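Hi Y.,

Following your request, here is the sequence exactly as I used it, all 150 residues.
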Amino acid sequence: MIRPRYETRADYEKMIQLGSRLARRLKCIPHFAPYEFQPEIDCALFRGSMHVGWIEFKARSYSYAELDAMKPRNGYMLAIQKWDSAFNCLQSGLPFGLVVQLSDGLYMATFRGKLPAVPSDKGGRTDRGDPKDIETCVFLPMQLFQKIAA
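Below is the corresponding structure, written out as tokens. Let me know if you'd prefer a different format.
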């Protein structure tokens, strides 16, 4: 059974704008899949015709400090499937970036070569009433993220 798509076209357009802004800063060209597709990773980055990296975008209403202090697991929660996708991206030899818009700024964690060992546990959101939203997640220490914009 296929899960409902919760990302709206407005969410997608916001991601495109954010990705384009980030790509300009990194002197890259972002390549996004069309809205109708649901790729494993949101964006491939290119310089000219050379593929130079992968980016996944997320947005959360929490601040950096709130995520850092959250209990019982502190840090940024990410579904294990996305973490596996990040692992697959790194197998290409290219870096993977996780870009998160938080209430107090834009943050990015960049991974090269291999992913760090991080804790995992059941987690997820409960506000949509979708039991599949509760799944195995990894918890990324906030120290992995650098603020890249206000």
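The chain has a mean pLDDT of 92.

Thanks again,
Q.
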